[in-house]
Design brief:
- The protein folds into two domains: 92 residues, Elongation Factor Tu (Ef-tu), domain 3, CATH 2.40.30; 159 residues, Rossmann fold, CATH 3.40.50.
- Helices cover 16% and strands 36% of the residues.
- It contains five helices and 16 strands.
Length: 265
Amino acid sequence: MSMNLEEVKVLEHREIMGGYRLLLLDAPAIAPHVLPGQFVHVRVPHYEVALLRRPFSVYKTEGTTLSILYKNVGRGTETLTHLQPGKTLSLIGPLGHGFPTPQPEHIPVLVAGGYGMAALYMLARNAPQKGAAFFGGRSAQDILCADEFVSLGWDLRIATEDGSAGLKGLVTDALDAWLNNERLNRTPEFFACGPNGMLKAVGDRAIKGTWKAWLSMDRNMGCGVGACLTCVQKIRNPEGDWEWKRCCKEGPVFESREIVWEKES
């Protein structure tokens, strides 16, 4: 896997909605090598107390450019909001083991919570066949770039906890309604990114249905390159026991049957 440390130029930086922002970067050493579900590690500029880089899923790539979607949720991301076009940013990437290509005989099903959809866009764009996509959030302000997934040919279903867009409830409620009502002529194959509770719920449904679910695990990362062991996850091994795997290196994507959730251990 090609990994590079690169000083990249900010081409565009704007707010989309509800505190979510799009950062477009010229990254010729990194962008052409990014695979769906991979991420970059960003050095937050002018933020001396942030010794560690921050991981961000790659939303899109085109030629030498890549884009990141993020939300202003703390001091590090607040510092990022002040980046202007023309400034530079230090990136390491692409990092991680991303999503596999959907099996051609399956129907791909994307499940995203909040801006977890950013990690799924490249998969949606590159998938050999289109399927169903489920986006969930607290409100309509958390449902991002829906039109782009629709324009790619995906059947998009939305759920919000306050009912301001789509079904009122959790994204898994919309997924359950689809699974119960859809006459599936192909086996579903799940690809999910979002909070860990949502990931476990999607994985549980896949295991019950004897389907596969590829889950992008949400773990705090330190170094991003496999050295610090901050982001380890318990993963089942072929011997029936478990071992620690690094989400930044062997992950962040694991198949649902591999994952040992904390209450199981």
